[in-house]
From TrEMBL:
Keywords: DNA-binding, Transcription, Transcription regulation
Protein name as annotated: LacI family DNA-binding transcriptional regulator
Keyword Repeat: no
Gene Ontology MF, one: DNA binding
Every HTH lacI-type domain range: 3-57
Matching CDD domains: HTH_LacI, PBP1_MalR-like
Amino acid sequence: MNVTIKEVAKLAGVSISTVSRTCTNHPKISEKTKEKVREAMKILGYEPNFQASNLASKNSKTIGIILPIAENFSYQNSFFLEVIHGVCQACIIENYMNTIISGNSEKELLKSIKSIINSGKVEGFILLYSKDNDPILEYLNKNNQIYTIIGKPSKNINNTIYIDNDNITAGKDATDYLIKLGHKKIGFLYNQGNRIFVQDRKAGYISSLLENNIEIKQEYCLEKNLALEKDTLELQELFLSEHSPTAIIALDDIIALLLEKILLNINKHVPKDLSIITFNNTLLTTLTNPQLTCIDINNYQLGLESALQIIRHIKDPNLLPTKIIVPHNIIERNSCKKFENN
């Protein structure tokens, strides 16, 4: 009976794609790993099928798109649709295909990724998120997989291909905009504080307050899960108090929409009682009344650039890791007004 590549991978303790890349002497595979694979091949008497190896490791021409785990509103956020649109357009240009990988937990997501890697059907991955201590990223690194991140990596930043906005400057620009309108009691409303872009936007918010000699109030740094009644009630209490902020920077469009709903429930109105500026500039920002002022982070361009870069590095593994910063700009609509202290 012929020995299969799967048996070699099992004996060597690596993925099928790693065996395939060893057969073609892929530079991304360490010499130590190559020796381990070659030893397993020798023990089993495996003769490489280079046609199969090429299919698995070089010519599948498929990119895996890894979504964050399904946390509350992730898949209702059209940010991901716009980014994926950009990825798909790049794949069409480069004659590549793509497949979406998702899961309801890290364990489930990791299981899907392992299965795809072992099948050898994907050449590289695009992660649509970045966060601290990510087991998905650790697994990809351990198994010598090529990937790019949309967002700034939490570590190994100089050795990672990534596409991002300057989120610190974006957070600062949003805060500066409100300060120029006369606001000093400005809140920052966010969730999932372990995400890198959240930390960066918050840092920009704080930087702007410091530069403008405005006191940083911890009660205005609002890390809330608006799907929880407890957090919703706490926000209502804040906006009904005499210490209520006059303006809010919302982390994204979904949070801004949920905030508007909370305000309506306590008979508060935008921008009369509270000015709101948000991020992403998806279709949702134009469907509200009033329409939302926002920081446009060019979602489509993030997706397009991420796919173009991963394909470049697949074609030439010797390229140095690339960092691309996609510009942002402010879209002024009707959710912010000048603050007048009556």
